[in-house]
Amino acid sequence: MKILFLVYHGFSEHSGISQKIHYQVKGLKENGHDVRLCYYDFSLEGHRCRYVDDTVLKDYGKGKWAAIRQRLDYDSIADYCINESIQLVYARCFQNASPWLTQCFKKLRQAGIHAVTEIPTYPYDQEFKTFSFKQRIELKIDQLFRNNLYRYMDAMVTFSDAKEIFGQRTINISNGVDFDSIPLHNFHLSSTSEATSSITTFNSQLHLIGVAEVHPWHAFDRVIAGIGEYYRKFKVQSSKFKDVYFHIVGGVHPYHMEHDFQPLIEKYGIQDKIIFHGTLFGQELDNVFNQCQFAIGSLGRHRSGITAIKTLKNREYATRGIPFIYSEQDSDFDSQPYVLKAPADESPINIQKIVDFMKDFSMKPEAIRKTVEPLQWKYQMQKVVDTVFNPR
């Protein structure tokens, strides 16, 4: 089957979103489909261009008018699909609904070409509360036109449990994983780590890791507060006591650092317990994972009005084979023995509960990974194709 995978932006080598899209394309290709990737980016000469794979589909030129044209001109996409006999367009929502994009998908529908749009996070409106004024205006435009746009889809692809989104039926799948790109967890203490240099035994410590481009809905502040409360209660060491460290890997906005993290760290005097690594990739990321025993998922999705979601991070942790905690509803993991559930509220995370959980935890990384074999992208993406072309 000929499929056009459509995104409305470019790619970054180290972006998790970019990697996810490439894994989705790979998953479709592993099922034997002819997949072309359509995206928008800048050429080496600085021209704004729309590409299909490495070929320029439309060159909009330079300057402000070029920026405007690329937001209004989607005819090149529809014409390409018609001329190349594309059978399915898989688009990724960019909160960019408009009359011009609607006209594109209307033209595809009239040509007999099927289309779906993936909503990476649903609902997403509340996430924009902390975004820039320009982004909030763009959301308002999206809100005006999205219901009309999605009339021309066969369905909306969602990682939530929603049965209808913006007046359109849904295809419910899970965020997937690519086993080839994620190594198994191999815990060992690093003698070069500042946090572990004075610690000599496994039994005296617990290292937590949270990986994200940090936003309020990750609620890492709940972990910091939990660690602070843990140390406040255990001023005198007991037989259950462990030194607990939290490794935060990923970008942290200065505002969140100043208003959410630093006041808690200073309040509890735990400056040496919270380690900010910044953004890491490849072997550097693996090294930090391998000196940690337990991972932190999202703990504040309720802040965005989300109850149920199948986040990519939970699946990546499970693929590595490391136990983890989160607070939303995720039917793929809610009953797994390597998962702890946190309440979906603003309370500090109960660190003692994690310490007690890990004391008796013996499940091997290989066994954890085996539980997510059905969540590989090739299976999740094929669900979309099967549902569109073989509806029950």
Overview of the molecule:
With 392 residues, this protein is an alpha/beta fold. The chain contains twelve helices and 15 strands. The chain has helices at 16-30, 63-72, 75-83, 99-110, 133-150, 220-233, 254-268, 282-289, 312-320, 351-359, 365-370, 377-389, and strands spanning 2-6, 34-42, 48-52, 55-61, 88-92, 114-119, 155-158, 164-165, 168-172, 205-211, 243-249, 274-278, 294-296, 324-326, 339-341. The strands form two sheets. Strands 4-3-2-1-5-6-7-9-8 form a nine-stranded mixed β-sheet. Strands 12-11-10-13-14-15 form a six-stranded parallel β-sheet, sandwiched between helices. Strand 11, helix 7 (254-268) and strand 12 form a beta-alpha-beta unit. Helix 4 runs parallel beside helix 5 (133-150). The chain is globular, with a radius of gyration of 23 Å.
